[in-house]
Design goal:
- It is a single chain.
- The chain has 327 residues and is mainly alpha-helical.
- 54% of the residues lie in helices and 3% in strands.
- It is built from 17 helices and two strands.
- A two-stranded antiparallel sheet has the order 1-2.
- A hairpin with a 5-residue loop joins strand 1 and strand 2 (174-178).
- The longest helix has 27 residues, at 300-326.
- The model is unreliable at 1-9 (pLDDT under 50).
Length: 327
């Protein structure tokens, strides 16, 4: 028999309000009756982790919040693969080594967004709403290079759904950009995914003509507040291949590892830890990760060109600019 306090508030001096009503890839909510086993699994895993039963020390509330965010992503992942893992009956208990290997491979290549097929799901939702049918397979395979008529119809549907916002540039022009919150609501996708994934932003630029560039993944700040792109602006080719950063990857590994340590408390909904090798699954993908560190230094030749141009502007326009701002 599992015995634990009725609520986290009864067990700890600091309580945390958690919204369990999150959207799953099959368009159901975690709180729906059909997902009661999966919901109970997530709640118990978080509860026991918050009590410090994973490694003996109760975590800080911010650490516990981060832990729960990844557990909810894991719940989305088993729901996405529910034909294999049957989370509505078994929670996380059917997760196996091949699945863990594939999960960490996809997370290393593109974070949770790639593992959860967020771009594919978003495009399918767009296409169904715009054309009243599922995406044809050939079009799904070329979703980052869509035909103009497809992009135009989807932009019309997005406009009808008030998915665009206007941004003003320094020179007074207005550019149209997608509103992330509204877009996520229209497409029923995970909150924050549209902004967090470079690969997703590359896809969305097809529906933002004012932000589109053949080579660069321009940000809203590049278009709305600068005459030239920031030195941090990535090439589209690089953004498409950008993997998960080392810190996030390690955190996901720790979260899944700590959740397995709770098997002795809730064995009916967690896999047997001895059947999974998290360390091996993670080690196979290190070459795909983005190294954590400072922004690369600007090449000397590029820096000198910027410096020369700045000096030319100072010499040529300096006096006029000072007079203008003083006036």
């Amino acid at each position: 028999t599992e015995i634990y306090p009725l609520s986290l508030h009864d067990a700890l001096p600091i309580s945390e309000n958690i919204n369990w009503s999150v959207l799953l890839p099959d368009d159901s909510l975690l709180t729906d009756n059909a997902n009661s086993v999966l919901l109970d699994t997530c709640r118990k895993v978080y509860f026991f982790y918050r009590l410090g039963l994973a490694d003996g020390n109760p975590p800080a509330i911010t650490t516990a919040r981060l832990f729960n965010g990844h557990i909810l992503h894991l719940a989305r992942w088993v729901n996405l693969n529910k034909n294999k893992y049957k989370p509505e009956q078994y929670g996380f208990s059917l997760i196996d080594q091949p699945g863990i290997d594939r999960l960490f491979r996809e997370v290393a290549e593109g974070g949770w967004s790639l593992a959860l097929r967020t771009v594919e799901r978003a495009f399918n939702a767009m296409y169904i709403n715009a054309f009243n049918q599922a995406v044809p397979p050939p079009l799904m395979n070329s979703m980052f290079n869509l035909p103009e008529d497809v992009k135009l119809r989807i932009r019309e549907w997005l406009s009808e759904g008030d998915a665009y916002v206007s941004l003003k540039t320094p020179n007074g022009f207005e550019v149209q950009a997608l509103n992330s919150n509204r877009l996520e609501s229209l497409l029923s996708i995970d909150k924050g995914m549209s902004a967090a994934s470079p690969r997703f932003r590359v896809f969305l630029r097809q529906f933002e003509p004012d932000l589109f560039h053949n080579d660069l993944l321009l940000s809203r700040q590049d278009s709305a507040s600068r005459n030239y792109p920031s030195h941090r602006t990535p090439f589209i080719e690089d953004a498409m291949k950008e993997g998960c950063n080392e810190n996030s990857y390690s955190t996901i590994g720790r979260v899944i590892g700590n959740s397995l340590k709770l098997y002795r408390h809730i064995p009916c909904v967690l896999p047997e830890p001895s059947t999974l090798n998290i360390t091996r699954a993670m080690a196979c993908n290190k070459s795909l990760l983005v190294t954590t560190g400072h922004t690369p230094f600007m090449p000397i030749d590029t820096g000198l060109k910027y410096l020369n141009e700045a000096l030319r502007w100072t010499v040529r326009y300096g006096d006029e600019l000072i007079d203008y701002y003083i006036a």
